[in-house]
Amino acid sequence: MSNKPTAETKRDIVSEVQELIKEGLKKGYLENIYFTQNYSDLQSRVIEYLIVVNVAQKLEHFGVQNNIFINLEYSLNDFYNNAFPSFIFEGEIFAQQHKSRKQHSPKDSKSKRIDIALTEENKSKGEWFITQKSLIGIEIKSINQSDKKIQKDIERMAKAITLKDDISQNNIQACFACFFKRFDKDNTTLTKPQIEKKTSAEKKKWEKHFEEIKDIYPDLIFELIDTSIVNIPAEEFKNISFDPEANYEDLIANTGCINAYMIKITRKVLS
After folding, report:
1. Residue pLDDT, tens place only, 10-38
2. What is the model's pLDDT at position 208?
3. Cystine design at 129: which of 122, 242, 243, 245 (Cβ 3.0–4.6 Å)?
4. Order of strands, sheet of 220-232, starting from the edge strand that comes earlier in the sequence
5. Which of 26, 121, 108 is nearest to 67 (CA)?
């Protein structure tokens, strides 16, 4: 079936995309367990591309229904520039003037790509896009990546939403920076209070970062959305283990905490 758009997107799609990303992150993690033939639900290594593909697959049906393209490994240069039409015609029909957009190429690299981009064909009168119009960008990192790498994703996505051009408003509706965090280690266990302490600290850490960058992006809202993937504290192991011979190694292998996180970046609504 063709995924060719035939009409404008008429509703806010961000909340729907958010839920589908969450489902894709969960499914991707579970498939990682299967394809790497691991016998524990707690993984220290996650194949990043497997997660990306699962998120894209979750978005596929949504894309067909809403006349939206789901693009993997999409050019960041195109995502930035196609937040705006390539050019427009202004004025009366016999006195029209051609107006082009500015160049919005990213400073770090024109060859840089983002994991998933949602785009659509333009249907607005008088606006011309060489490629599809940019709508939503999604970056995904695997488990326990450095904060610096995640912050780079946030920076790229925030930059996309804040781009400005005299030719039109920015068409990008939202961006997401996603990642996984494992809070226990392969040779240790965590109790329920320890898990709550660590997950709370993770939330506070990112809220502090959002506070630090709010002056750079005064028109944006940064929201941390957490999703529990595995949450089995050590004291609950006896409730899920039916093996009377289970030992400390079994306890380590079958308890712990892994969360998936989405940092949603949107514009503030002006009152």
Report:
1. 457 999 999 999 999 999 988 887 776 66
2. 98
3. 122
4. 69-75, 113-120, 133-143, 174-182, 256-267, 220-232
5. 121
Alpha helices in the chain (DSSP H): 14-35, 48-65, 76-81, 147-162, 192-213, 237-240, 248-254
Using alpha carbons, select from 113, 114, 140, 146 the residue that is nearest to residue 32.
140
Dihedral angle over CA of 195, 200, 202, 208, nearest 10: -170
| More confident position, 96 or 120 | 120
DSSP letter (8 states) at residue 242: -
What the block records as the tokens of 200 is 């709370």
Among candidates 163, 175, 66, 156, which has minimal Cα distance to 116?
A: 175
* Token digits of residue 37: 């033939």
What residues pair up with 154 in beta bridges, in sequence order? none
Instruction: Give dist(CA 56, CA 180) in Å, integer.
Output: 17
Q: How many CA atoms are closer than 13 Å to the CA of 271, on its beta-carbon side?
A: 0
pTM for the complete prediction? Answer: 0.83
Q: Are strands 174-182 and 133-143 parallel, antiparallel or unpaired?
A: parallel
Indicate the DSSP class of residue 69: E
Report d(CA 157, CA 233) in Å as an integer: 35
- Residue 220's identity, in one-letter code, is L
